[in-house]
Amino acid sequence: MAFQSKNIFINLPVKDVKKSTSFFRSLGFEFNAQFTTDDTASMIISDNIFALIMTEDRFKEFSKKEIVDATTSAEAILCLSADSRDQVDELVNRAVASGGKISNDPQDHGFMYGWGFQDLDGHIWEVVYMDESAMNQQ
To answer: For residue 1, what are the CA distances in angstroms to 5, 6, 50, 66?
Structure first.
């Protein structure tokens, strides 16, 4: 039987939890106060996907590896689905207005449209809309 997880917990090291929390709140994300402390914030991405944003010192308690400097190196690209092309643009534009940076040019593949941003610590977030009706026509 194949393994299937019910939840995903992403752990991200950040320089300043309060600034990162404020940044992601400005994008429309909510946080679970039950799992939020001075050094960790539990961001709700969906019913089953969460990002634990934690100070670098707290993050180091979970890994003996060096923390990647996400402003100069990439270890992962976090991809979020959107309900429309407009929602893709809206989220990326809000990220930039809140202090983030554009990570790439918009990508339009007809049935799929995506664009990305970097958060305050340089982590790359892609936002993608897939038009299933157009995808089935290709």
So the answer is: 13, 15, 26, 35
pLDDT at 136: 63
Burial (Cβ within 10 Å: 0-12, 13-18, ≥19) of residue 51: buried
Phi, then psi, of 76 in degrees rounded to 5: -155, 155
Q: Which of 77, 106, 69 shows the shortest CA–CA distance to 91?
A: 106
Count of beta carbons in the 10 Å neighbourhood of residue 105:
8
Report the range of poorest mean pLDDT among 24-28, 41-45, 64-68, 125-129: 64-68
Residue 58 CA to its chain's centroid (Å): 19
Residue 96, H or E segment: helix 85-97
